[in-house]
Structure formats: C-alpha cells, structure tokens
Amino acid sequence: MKRKRVVIAMSGGVDSSVAAAILQEQGYEVIGLTMCFNLAEKDGKKPSCCGLIGIEDARRVAQKLGIRHYVVNLNKDFSREVIHNFYQEYLSGRTPNPCVRCNQFIKFGILLNKAINLGAQFLATGHYARIVKSRQGYLLKKARDLKKDQSYFLYRLNQGQLKQIIFPLGNYNKSQVRSMASDFKLNVAEKQDSQEICFLPDGKYGDLIKAKGSQLVKPGYLVDKNGNILGRHKGIPFYTIGQRQGLGIAKGYPLYVTQINARNNQVTVGRREDACKNEFLVKDIHFLIKPFKKKVEINVKIRYNHNASLAVAYLVQGKLKVYFKQPQFAITPGQSAVFYQRDTVLGGGIIEKVLG
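Structure (tokenized):
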C-alpha cells in the first residue's frame, strides 16, 4: 500500500523538527519545506524562524531523518501580504497581528498549494493546536498544552484547508516535545524558541517603520481624555493601546495609552481604568463552521496572551458587535478578536473600533 505523502513546514526549530519525526514514525512519506523570506539574521541569542541559520538547522534535521528537503523563497509574497499590511496598519494608528496574516496567506495559502503540487495529501506544521473531524465538519481546537496553544493565530482557516492540515504536536506539551527531540537525536533539541516577529530582529517596529517612510512618521501631541496637552509623542507607530512605557510624562500615577487618533496625529493617555472597555466592533469576520444568526454568548480573546472572557456578540450590518460582561484592558484596533466555545474556535475578525 502506497504511503500517504505529507509536506512539513520546517523552520529549523524544535517544534517543526519533532513534528517531522513524529510524522515519519507514523508511516507518512515526509518532505520538508522551509520558507525563506530574505530576512536579516538576529543577534544569535534569539533564533529567527526564517533566516539562514533556521534554514541550515532544518536541512540538518531533514538529513538526520533521511527525508527530502527543499527551500522555497517567498520573499515577494511575504512582503506583499504581511509586511506591507504591517506598515500600513501602524501608520493608521492600529496594531496588526502579522502572524495571523502569515498563516492565512503564506503558510496555509501559498505553502499549502506548493505541498499539493508536490503530490502531498497534507501540509503539517509545528503549531500547537488540534483538528477534530465531527458531524459539523472539521473543528479547530485548542492544544492540550494551553500555555503553548496557538489556535488564536489560526482562526482564518477554512474547511478545505483544515481537511488537508495536520498538527502533530496538538496533544503534547513543550517539555514532551523537547524530550522527543532528544530521543530522536535531533541537533535542535536545546534550541531556544523564537519569540519576536520574524522580520523585526530587535522588536523595534517603530524605528523600522520610520526608516521605511520617515516622512509619514511625525511627532505630535500626547493629550488627556479632555484634550489637554501633556507632552509630545515620537510618531503614531511608536504607540499601541495599553502601552505604559516610553511616554515620557511624570504625572504622579501610571499613565497608559487609551486612544490613538492617526488623523489628528494625537495619542490620548489616561489611568489604567480609562483603557478598560466593554464594547467594540469586529470587521472582516470569518467563521470556521457556520456564522452567528442571532445574539450568542461566547468567550472572546482580544490578543494572544489575553485570557478569553465571556461576551455577548451579534451581527450589525455585516459587522459583529461584541460586549464583554466585564471591562477588558486594552481592546486594540487592528488586533484579532477570536471567538471560542469551550476549546473550539468558532471564528474571529479584526477589531475595528472600540465603543464608549
């Protein structure tokens, strides 16, 4: 019987490397595919998932496992779909999530198509999430290891994609994965995880945006909620909702960014409670199974490290209005709001506007 072929997206990190080894052990014909974005290398202390070091580590793992390995240059696609959007959103006073767009357009868009063109039935990645087949269709669920769960970044997947995706690590925790890497004798067993955005080597997104379009990044006023001028800001892209550091204002109590107005080039600051809101609108809504037809009570995450909180959601003229039962800190336009029912991802969208 001919073995099923699976392409594994190999970043050179421990997660995708172990995922490749697990698939091979399960009897799949495994092919490794590593994306190259022509990105600058980091300082060596924090590994990049798409730099030359990552590519070389992936090649060594593939050689150790005895599987075919290819590198595909997706620099133009990545720049068009992810980096350009990143710049435009920050210049507009919003805070985007590039990992969501990378998953949507690059990994489970272009890379999935390349896997199919290689004759594979599946694309696998090292994401910590699970896919479960049910009567309703394919369900996207949280990983068993809730500390590593990455289902938040995957909410834009559709049924056709879920049918062709495998997440081998969904039922494991990180310590088990590292232990398996040692058991498989992979050279990346002790490799540090990549944390920051891959195209920001030092995490200083404001400086990068200013360097790319300095004429668009202009200083302006820091104001309070009544419009009183408190100081000067360096430029809209240097700030995000909930930010406390780098404001340069001494007020006798902590100040947080509560609102960003790109049109007026103003950043509003206030007390922490001023940054806590209940209600917001969501645009670009995507559902994995079926859309909400009436008012529903769901759990909503407004950023990756946010604990999903109980909210009521309902459709209003093609957008979703979400009302949290308890005020939440730093609801941020541009970020993704992801809807959950227990451990199942129902869908999500982009936070467009905070109300009230």
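The mean pLDDT is 92. The two ends are 62 Å apart (CA to CA).
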